[in-house]
Design a protein that fits this description.
Radius of gyration: 19 Å
Number of domains: 1
Structural class: mainly alpha
Distance between the termini: 48 Å
Largest sheet: none
Shape: globular
Strand content: under 5%
Helix content: 55-70%
Order of helices and strands: HHHHHHHH
């Protein structure tokens, strides 16, 4: 089945917009970075100690590929460097790896016992949301198409508009 997109689905650079679903997935897969940023902004030593203690650092490691993709999404412009284009091209597998890593860590818990009896309802909700995000990334045609497109770099042989 072919996806049809109207003019509103494309940004000013002529590539398909990221969309709300992909933005929500990026927020979900980078949530420990947001928690860490909020903790640093609070300047509370007790809160910083509680967040940095435990498995928070492992989540930061598992979510790092998603942070790279989020950075490439911000710089998804024609004048972005080659690094953004390369990360964006591999964005889909990077996000899936990040989703699976965070789901395994969430299921493993803070002591890596992999005991589902110690999990609480929010853990199951986050695991389900993470697997749903991975499923969307793997099977949604829009997600595949978004990661195939990157704005072309500006041509250097074009005459400047300032010269008339």
């Amino acid at each position: 089945m072919s996806e049809k997109y109207s003019f509103e689905h494309f940004n000013r650079h002529g590539v398909l917009k990221i969309g709300v679903a992909l933005l929500a997935i990026l927020m979900l897969l980078t949530n420990h970075y947001w928690i860490g940023l909020a903790t640093l902004m609070s300047r509370s030593p007790e809160l910083m100690a509680s967040v940095l203690d435990g498995t928070h650092k492992y989540y930061l490691l598992a979510e790092f590929p998603a942070v790279l993709v989020a950075a490439a999404a911000v710089f998804r412009k024609p004048d972005a460097g080659r690094w953004a284009m390369v990360i964006w091209r591999f964005g889909l597998p990077l996000l899936v790896v990040s989703a699976l890593g965070t789901a395994v860590l969430r299921f493993g818990g803070s002591k890596f016992r992999f005991n589902p009896n110690i999990l609480e309802a929010p853990d199951f909700v986050l695991i389900g949301a993470t697997f749903a995000a991975a499923g969307y990334l793997l099977f949604a045609p829009r997600a595949r198409r978004v990661f195939k497109e990157f704005p072309a770099p500006p041509a250097e042989d074009k005459p400047s508009s300032a010269v008339r």
